[in-house]
Design goal:
Elements: H1 3-16, E1 25-30, H2 35-49, E2 53-58, H3 71-89, E3 92-95, H4 107-120, E4 124-127, H5 135-150, E5 168-172, E6 186-189, H6 194-202, H7 205-215, H8 226-234, H9 243-253, H10 255-258, E7 264-273, H11 278-284
Parallel strand pairs: 1-2, 1-4, 2-3, 4-5
Antiparallel strand pairs: 5-7, 6-7
Helix pairs in contact: 2-6, 3-6, 4-5, 6-8
Length: about 290
């Protein structure tokens, strides 16, 4: 192994060797104000419960995501919903003012993302994979990928100090198979905070009780009573847990506990950014089993 490669590996390992008392800083990017909550709300609640710092960023303002509302009024409503969801989870929530349905991987938006990662001094960055049915989701994945190296380059966005360590970038779980299926490198047991996640999603009234049921033809099934709505949301069918996801749970929590988990959130390590080993992942995701 050449000296330069050895030095790089030792340097990366040293940067990940965090003091047990040091707080982990996580930033998650979703295309719309509810995407982070859907894909990582439970994991965020666990981080927050342990005293770590989490920020959700919606890259668009959601001003197109409704069947009967739109524009500035809808964007204002969705921003308020996001802030309330963040309050319920114990995380910071920011909504960027880019139009819903019009997101492109431009330099302007890339710089917005680079600055947020730097300002948060992130250890972990979460985002969608760049293959998805929605162009905003795809381009959010591309934009975060494009920021993965640039966050340490001083001459890019020089108004914001560069990071001295590259974060670990991970993808949210999805069900898309092409060009390649999602790989659950990290699987988090969220059973203990499942209702925290549901209550956070409940804050996104315009989405979980109006827009998404309308899209799915289920609007007439949504209860009117707030308590019944919460129960309806919690009882919505989830995707069956596949073999790879169950194996990942058993890897991180042991066979006995891993076999019992009902609700989970999973993440795939991005090939860009820092490449963590198993010990590094346990440091960065301290809720995993020992």
């Amino acid at each position: 192994m050449c000296k330069l490669m050895l030095f790089s590996l030792l340097f990366a390992s040293a940067l990940l060797a965090q003091d047990p008392g040091e707080k982990i800083r996580v930033i998650a990017f979703g295309a719309h104000p509810d995407d982070c909550d859907i894909r990582a709300g439970g994991t965020a609640a666990l981080f927050a419960r342990m005293g770590h710092h989490v920020k959700f960023v919606a890259v668009t303002n959601g001003d197109a995501g409704h069947q009967s509302e739109g524009g500035g009024a809808l964007a204002k409503r969705r921003r308020a919903e996001a802030i309330e969801s963040g309050r319920r989870l114990g995380v910071t929530y920011e909504v960027l003012d880019n139009h819903d349905g019009e997101l492109l991987p431009t330099m302007t938006v890339r710089e917005q993302i680079i600055r947020r990662i730097r300002q948060w001094n992130a250890d972990v960055v979460l985002a969608p994979r760049p293959n998805d049915y929605h162009p905003d989701h795809r381009y959010t994945g591309v934009l975060v990928q494009d920021a993965a190296y640039m966050v340490v380059v001083p001459n890019i966005c020089p108004d914001t100090p560069p990071l001295r360590k590259n974060p670990v970038f991970l993808y949210f779980e999805d069900d898309f198979q092409r060009p390649n299926p999602f790989r659950p490198d990290v699987a988090v047991d969220i059973d203990s905070v499942f209702m925290n996640k549901i209550r956070a999603l409940d804050a996104h009234v315009s989405q979980v009780y109006e827009w998404l049921p309308w899209v799915d033809g289920l609007l007439d099934q949504v209860p009117k009573d707030p308590a019944e709505r919460l129960n309806w949301l919690a009882s919505r069918p989830e995707q069956p847990m596949g073999t790879a996801l169950r194996q990942s749970l058993e890897k991180w929590y042991g066979p006995a506990k891993g076999a019992q988990v009902k609700h989970t959130e999973a993440f795939e390590v991005c090939e860009y950014g820092r490449q963590p080993g198993n010990d590094d992942i346990r440091k960065l995701f301290p809720m995993l089993g020992k």
